Amino acid sequence: MFRAGLQWMFLIIGTTIGAGYASGRELWQFFGHESGLAILLFAVFFSISCYVIMHISYQKQSTDYLPVLRDIVGKKLTAVYDVMIFLYLTTTTVVMIAGSGATGQAFEISYWWGVLAIIVALILIFMKDINGLLAMNQIVLPLLLGGLLYILLLFINDQGLNVWSHIHDQRNWTAAFPFTALNILPLIAVLGAIGNKVKSKQEIYVASIGSGLILGVLSFIYNSSLIQIADELLLYEIPLFAILQYYPVEILIFMSILLWFAIFTTAASGILGIVTRIRSWWTAPVWLLATIVILAMVPLTTVGFSTLINISYPIYGMLNLYVLTRLLLFPIWNKPATRKL
Fold first, then answer.
1. What domain range includes position 63?
2. Of 108, 251, 267, 283, whose CB has the highest number of CB atoms within 10 Å?
3. pLDDT per position as a tens digit, 94-135
């Protein structure tokens, strides 16, 4: 039970920690100064949302996100949000692929070699369906989380920073709502695809509480570190590299590899959501559908990495506040009289 819960927890974290989050760009876009309370609220909202999504998915024994989505937003809005989720998954997966190219550029490797690397890896992993993704998450994510936490704590210690120095200034607390809403959409798509694989409610508790706690702590530490180098962030496509500049090249290389794997796992989660949805009306091998989808996304990666995040993330975050509201109010609307809405 606990081990299975950890498996789903890593799937959740792997879906969330991608190019935008792990690089620091997404955190800086929404949080920044005076955001301690916002991050705390995000952690709570995130755990609740994950629990509700997994609970519905488990009850429905779903294999794609549509049955879960129908329960969350209601029958009348299902078609609208179905299109929105599909487009969102496409957009964010393109961001991940572009992020792979941007990571390569940091080492003076051609942007297109970075893109090619993730395309090949994505196609290969879907040769084994979801099991390959789950196995990779359990290996890569502990390394990523541990490595990222280590370098952030090292940076805070070396710079003599006090992360609690502005604890009384919390005017940006409302950022928790669009940030959580933004990260919920891909989770509906991914967790909706594994409902038939969840065996008990205990797994749901472990996955939802664990993921919210880990992401909350990591987000607070990461955001506190970025605040200290706010003036330098304009010079970097990937904010994490602004922190890594203070350390030996070996650490830069190691963290860049982990960053690439974070990008990869999130891209794989996005492809999983898209492919499982397509399979509901087009029966074909997963690897074939994944290949078609991935190749169709390549031309879209010519838009800049930061540009894609800056434009798409806030828009989708605001549009999906309704979904977040429904998830947070689950005990109220989850009644026989209201589930026909």
1. 2-331
2. 267
3. 878 887 887 777 678 888 888 999 999 999 888 877 777 888
Residue 172, class by beta-carbon neighbours within 10 Å (0-12 exposed, 13-18 middle, 19+ buried)? middle
Give the number of C-alpha atoms closer than 13 A to the C-alpha of residue 209, restricted to the C-beta side.
Answer: 8
148-180 confidence digits (pLDDT tens):
899 899 888 888 877 776 677 788 899 999 889
For 65-76, give the DSSP string: SHHHHHHHH-HH
* CATH classification of the domain holding 323: 1.10.4160.10
Look at residue 278 and tell me if it is in a domain: yes
E strand spans, 138-266: none
Triad 93, 100, 302: Cα angle to 5°: 70
Structurally, the chain folds into a number of domains equal to 1
Query: Any residues with CB less than 8 A from the CB of 120 and at least 6 apart, and which?
Result: none
Please report whether residue 51 resides in a domain.
yes
